[in-house]
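Fold this sequence, please.
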Amino acid sequence: MHRETMEYDVVIVGGGPSGLATAIKFAQLNKENNTDYSICLLEKGSEIGAHILSGNVFQPNALDELIPNWKDLNAPLNVPVKKDKLLFLLKKIGIPVPSFLMPPMNNHGNYVISLGNLCRWLGEHAESLGVEVFPGFPASKLLIENDCVVGVQTGDMGISEKGELKPGHEPGIDIKAKHTILGEGCRGHLGKQVINLFNLNEDKDPQHYGIGFKEVWKIKPELHEEGLVIHTNGWPTSLDTPSGSYFYHGENNEAYIGYVIPLDYKNPHLSPFDEFQKWKTHPSIKKYLEGGERLSYGARALIKGGVQSLPNMEFPGGLLVGDNAGTLVFSKIKGSHTAMMSGLIAGIHIHEMLEGTVKESFDLKIKNSWIYKELHKSRNFGPIFHKFGALIGAALNVIDQFLFRGNLPFTLNHKSPDHACLKKADEMPKIEYPKPDGIFSFDKLSSVYLSNTNHEEDQPCHLQLKDPSIPINVNLPMYDEPAQRYCPAGVYEVVEKNNEKKFVINAQNCVHCKTCDIKDPSQNINWVSPEGPGGPNYPNM
């Protein structure tokens, strides 16, 4: 099979905030310095923004640095935050919490946005500066020569289950580059390989994650308060699982709503999807959704280990940027601004490398930036919740963030990887979830339908089992096979046929959240990129 080879000075994998910021800053420096270094950006989604999912209350400080005149250029930041509201939910009531007690949740000066739409705008800006942008091209493999990354290989378009190239389809392309920037977002599969290959996380805590859900609703004008930002803790998850929610009132009578569950939860019977659906039935939430219409649905893992889990971001031949490394600030539940800033710094660094003017490493540049200051102030937020649960953890985090402004004189650690936190099924209480009502709560399949997810069926499964016997022989007896519940898209099922249980993978439903890659207790599932632009097509996430 003959592969075409393309060569660039720089290749960027991922069209999210970090990858696009890298491309834009690098292209700006090309222009300012009259240099002509070549750069391309690969995006696995069908278009820039198609796979982007985020809450999103956006902190614009990195955008201010990257494109100072963004307002004049009609960036899609149209709804400034007008009011913050914090609630602790009990089963029937929501107890207001004064927002000044949690300074990181003060959103004055921020904007309620669709991150997907901001990325589409950034993509157009990158192209106007000469960046070659290739959507629908997943980077499937690293190209490595002499222990150095020298580029990536795009997936073979049209490989059948038997491994043969289908008639009329093209093999993938080898894209070689002097510098390879991995901005794949949380749990990027190439980023995961690079971290392991070059031992970038040596002496660090294990990385930690959550699963985040999002729905966009059209709500009644009389119930809509443009610029209102609501966050809740508490019900419906148990107090040993410190989950939280968001409810953002955006433009055009739309509300962006969602739920985040940390993936270090213990109970294998827990279904994050059903917890989210249940949350919407709470009186404090339901009152806004009465008479409304659900427009879209999606889910995505988010990375929250913070500074204790942050790997070295420079490796031989390239850089990790944004949430591929883990730059999200968990106390704020925000990562777009830090991801974008890491990309801006990466653009500067690789231009300096090509010019031979580098004075300090990329990791040192990150450490000397405001990214690191924000991560340092947030460093105890996740470990406090993990050690003390939702209620006591919230109180201790108020002490840390309000009284000490994130500067407690010690750093807590969370040494157990998320998959190892799961207890055995017979040690934990079963959870009975109410049936969806079709008004506020829904089932998985009707939800996945709203994500516009599609994969060509006759292609190798991109959800690879290292040992196909483990789901039925190990995970089922020990953990009641939790993949049936932690997957937000109904990809994994245990079915019985002729008195024999089988593990079924409905890979065409996959919304690329990566939760299975993270939470599987046997670490038996490896998520790799599917061929072509498969996956969700989020219009306004």
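The first strand starts at residue 4 and ends at 13. The first helix runs from residue 17 to 32.
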